[in-house]
Design goal:
alpha/beta; signal; ABC transporter substrate-binding protein; 19% strand; Peripla_BP_I; ABC_transpt-TYRBP-like; 13 helices; 7-stranded mixed beta sheet; 13 strands; 45% helix; 6-stranded parallel beta sheet; elongated
């Protein structure tokens, strides 16, 4: 027969056993720090997708997840400050959204896992050395697009276009890569590139106006300065009947005629799933960088009318979403 003392010891052991899942959950609390170079619809969607993937995997803010998010408001110096602050906080993963923020974070740590997102060319940005697993603390998801398909869309929207204008920030690595590739690609398609630099967000409108009369269409990549100030570009397009074709589908909602692009929310979900793998123990250097999946065609018929374009029925029929 057990003594009363043995009985209480057994009950105490049982209580501790029952309490252990709670203790384990506290011990397993993870920390994720996310940063973006600027706030605009596409990058905000990436952030929201990352959060959704974390929650789907069971990481809940206020329970077993510490989450912090900061944007650099378009300032690369601020991006560096945020990166250093996050490194000092020692989170389990840093999610860096857009090329300038990813470059700042990767330059600041060689040990804390980094998952990049919304980066067009992680090789050119020197985040990783190849599309194979890096063996470093860095992995992520690229939003790289096939530029030949982008220019085919330009031809469908403006069939007689021979001069393609592009406003971009020469200080943003992903934009420079696109410009360099277009310089080579467009002549093979019977077109030429006309460039206009916009080093700051406030320069976007003036850069667009400098293209008026020199181009048949303006193409915009995922340049963060341009996307942040897209309304100023739209005003120029509407006022001068200069068609705008984008690579970011959110820009169609803001006044571009068309875009063949990725869903940035799903892009964020994809990056978030990579972050989850790291939180669950995989080394970032063992996870090969990924690219986003299928592209969707978005059209804006009211923008087409404002910018002097008649969309073909074939193009309309192939759209995933039409905005009137």
């Amino acid at each position: 027969m057990k003594s009363p003392m043995s009985k209480w010891l057994s009950l105490g052991a049982l209580a501790m056993a029952l309490a252990s899942p709670f203790s384990s959950a506290v011990a397993d609390t993870k920390s994720v720090a996310a940063t973006a170079i600027v706030e605009h619809p596409a990058l905000d969607s990436v952030r929201d997708g990352v959060r959704a993937a974390l929650e789907e995997a069971g990481y809940t803010v206020g329970d077993n997840l510490k989450w912090q998010y900061q944007t650099a408001q378009g300032n690369t110096a601020t991006a560096g400050q945020i990166a250093r602050k996050f490194v000092g906080d020692k989170p389990d993963v840093i999610v860096a959204i857009a090329t300038p923020s990813a470059q700042a974070v990767v330059a600041s740590t060689k040990s804390i896992p980094v998952v990049f997102a919304a980066v067009t060319d992680p090789l050119a940005a020197q985040l990783v050395s190849s599309w194979e697993a890096s063996g470093t603390n860095v992995t992520g998801v690229s939003d790289e697009l096939e530029l030949d398909r982008q220019m085919e869309l330009v031809k469908q929207v403006v069939p007689n276009a021979t001069r393609v204008g592009m406003v971009y920030n020469p200080g943003e690595a992903n934009s420079v890569v696109v410009v360099e590739r277009l310089r080579e690609l467009l002549p093979t398609m019977g077109m030429t590139l006309v460039e206009a630099a916009a080093p700051r967000t406030v320069d976007v409108g003036a850069a667009a106006r400098s293209l008026v009369g020199k181009v048949d269409v303006i193409y915009t990549s995922t340049d963060n300065n341009v996307v942040s100030a897209y309304e100023s570009l739209v005003k120029v397009g509407n006022d001068t009947k200069t068609p705008l074709v984008a690579s970011d589908t959110d820009s169609v909602k803001r006044g571009a005629i068309a875009a063949l692009g990725i869903d940035y929310y799903q892009h964020g979900v994809q990056a978030g799933k990579v972050a989850v793998r790291v939180l669950q123990g995989e080394a970032p250097g063992s996870i090969a960088p990924q690219k986003s999946g299928e592209l969707s065609l978005y059209l804006n018929r009211s923008a087409a009318a404002a910018q002097g374009v008649t969309l073909s029925q074939e193009l309309i029929d192939s759209a995933a979403e039409i905005i009137d």
